[in-house]
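Hey team,

Filing this mostly as a record. A colleague (T.K.) asked me to run one chain through the structure pipeline before their review meeting, and I want the input and output archived in the tracker in case anyone asks later how it was produced. No errors, nothing strange. Just documentation.

Input sequence:
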Amino acid sequence: MAEPFAVTHPGYAPQDLERWAAEPPKTHGRTAFARDRARLLHSSALRRLAAKTQVVGPGTDDFVRNRLTHSLEVAQVGRELGAALGCDPDVVDTACLAHDLGHPPFGHNGERALAEAGADIGGFEGNAQTLRLLTRLEPKSVAADGSPVGLNLTRASLDASTKYPWLRGRAPRPTSKFGAYADDAAVFAWLRDGAPADRPCVEAQVMDFSDDVAYCVHDVEDAVVAGSVRLDWLREAEVRARVAAQVRDWYLPDVGDDEVDDALQRLQSLPYWAVEQPGEVYRGRRHLAALKDMTSQLIGRFARAAEDATRAAHGPGRLTRYAADVVVPAGTEVEVAVLKGVAATFVMSAQERQPFYARQRELLTELLVALTERAPDALEPPFREDHAAARDDAARLRVIVDQIASLTDVSAVAWHARLT
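Output structure:
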């Protein structure tokens, strides 16, 4: 006999547990949200993240992170912060594990290439592709009529995985980001049933902030270990000015140089800021240990700041679904953006890497042309079925984009070599 609903899912309503396609009742054991997390953990889409670019491409170094290790780290941060705020930790965990599923080969660079190639069919957006995977492409469940419904997660878990809760072109603020393609509007409307317009649930906000926290500290750590940046460079005025310009360009358009300087000074004054000491071997064991301690301490610093500010604004009790918003202090927001700006300045925007990035985009564009010419035979069986069922050229192109987005960095290069 199943446990009473209120015991197994405190803070959530029966509607939050509904699934897009009805399933037979489960026997006593895991909660519905624990089942969601298990489905995500066992998905092929999650496994593929192990061979997709985070900042440094997979296979270039045994130390640096890939999309899978990044997602696991985001889930660890999010699960603890969510639990501290009263969210169901499995809902937050699922959202964090899912947040990068829609990324194509070569990360944001590949996303840009597919967005340009698919401009006439609704574009391409990693977050919208994540929803498409969760509700359609990942093979796990089918509806009564035989149509695929992806992992068939609960409404609460799907909503928590939706960072940008609007369709393309309907954002409440200037941004190219969106959470669902027009082709997936029906399931998007279902998962957002009863939700305030354009507002992500608190679990999605925890996921989003945890992503920023993990991203900013770990990308700097990877950049230091890869030799792309040294933290002592940040003492130089010219370097700080470059970082400030990068932060304005990519993250906080209105931030001033003085705010960036203040944030860097706060970070550099922390007792655990990992700058090598005179006489130490750079990137030696002692320095790497200090670097690892710094990343751990910074995660705690940022998470505690958000937890304290959110509790101060909303008080005690369970903060679930739309009962609250995550509050991030302005100073913490700038510190996070500054660390992201450091990685962006010395890795993603480095001039010597631009020809490499351009070639990646060319490769995906050429692969799309080759697959369009040789579809459906060149497609994997599930996408071959989708291509055969597509009603027009636009729908067939979307299938080609889905196929390419599913590939890893390595397999995209291999497919390109084989097909072109």
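Quick notes for T.K.: Residues 228-346 form one domain. DSSP finds 18 helices and no strands in the chain.
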